[in-house]
């Protein structure tokens, strides 16, 4: 019941404020969480910058999005500034976006963050796969309902993408739900 109420609030805010308000927000009852491991450590200064969404589980708050990006900037106040943008309905559509903040969870090696796009809601942002050179990242949350494959460029070699998807299968993700994101070249 509490979960449905929270989801209704998210739907209300996403339609009345911005289509992206709930992006990366995961409101979930803790008992529903499944075991999911993150990477052991993330260097946030290397993680900062622009990421392109290569594929994701479809979410209402991203409906109609193409050319989706996320940009992370370290603030001097100890949190990460999160800016998500996309083009609505086509690669030439209007740019839509939302800005939020993320805080690192203690003792997580910087791999678990709490993201907030509007008060009081915060959601889990867990980095579960990361290239050694920080060329790609995979982000989810404990319940595995949300999933994003991110890359530093708007394309990813197919072999690398398939290898990521295979690792996600071994972690129990329903990879058949993944949808690739359209980008301009």
Distance between the termini: 44 Å
Order of helices and strands: HHEEEEEEEEHE
Strand arrangement across the biggest beta sheet: 1-2-3-4-5-6-7-8
**Name of the CATH architecture:** Beta Barrel
Relative helix content: 10-25%
CATH topology: Lipocalin
Question: What's the domain count?
Answer: 1
Mean pLDDT: 83
Radius of gyration over alpha carbons?
15 Å
Overall CATH class: Mainly Beta
Which stretches of 5+ consecutive residues score pLDDT under 50?
1-34
Outline, from the CA principal axes?
A: globular
Number of strands: 9
- The number of helices is 3
Judged by helices, strands and strand pairing, the structural class is: alpha+beta
Strand content: 35-45%
How would you describe this structure to a colleague?
- The protein has helices at 2-16, 44-47, 158-170, and strands at residues 49-56, 65-74, 80-88, 95-104, 112-118, 121-130, 136-140, 147-151, 179-180.
- The termini are far apart.
- The chain has one domain (2-179): Calycin beta-barrel core domain (Lipocalin, Beta Barrel).
- The protein is α+β, with helices and mostly antiparallel strands.
């Amino acid at each position: 019941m509490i979960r449905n109420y929270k989801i209704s609030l998210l739907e209300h805010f996403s339609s009345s404020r911005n289509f992206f308000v709930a992006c990366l927000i995961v409101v979930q009852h803790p008992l529903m969480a499944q075991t999911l491991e993150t990477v052991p450590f993330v260097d946030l200064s290397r993680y900062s910058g622009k990421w392109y969404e290569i594929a994701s589980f479809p979410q209402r708050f991203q409906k109609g999005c193409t050319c989706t990006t996320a940009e992370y900037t370290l603030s001097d106040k100890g949190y990460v500034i999160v800016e998500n943008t996309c083009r609505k309905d086509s690669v030439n559509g209007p740019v839509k976006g939302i800005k939020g903040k993320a805080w690192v969870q203690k003792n997580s090696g910087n791999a678990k963050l709490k993201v907030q796009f509007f008060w009081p809601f915060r959601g889990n942002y867990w980095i579960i796969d990361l290239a050694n050179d920080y060329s790609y990242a995979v982000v989810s949350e404990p319940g595995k309902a949300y999933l994003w494959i991110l890359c530093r460029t708007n394309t990813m070699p197919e072999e690398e993408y398939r290898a990521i998807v295979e690792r996600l299968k071994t972690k129990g993700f329903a990879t058949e739900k993944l949808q690739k994101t359209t980008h301009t070249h």
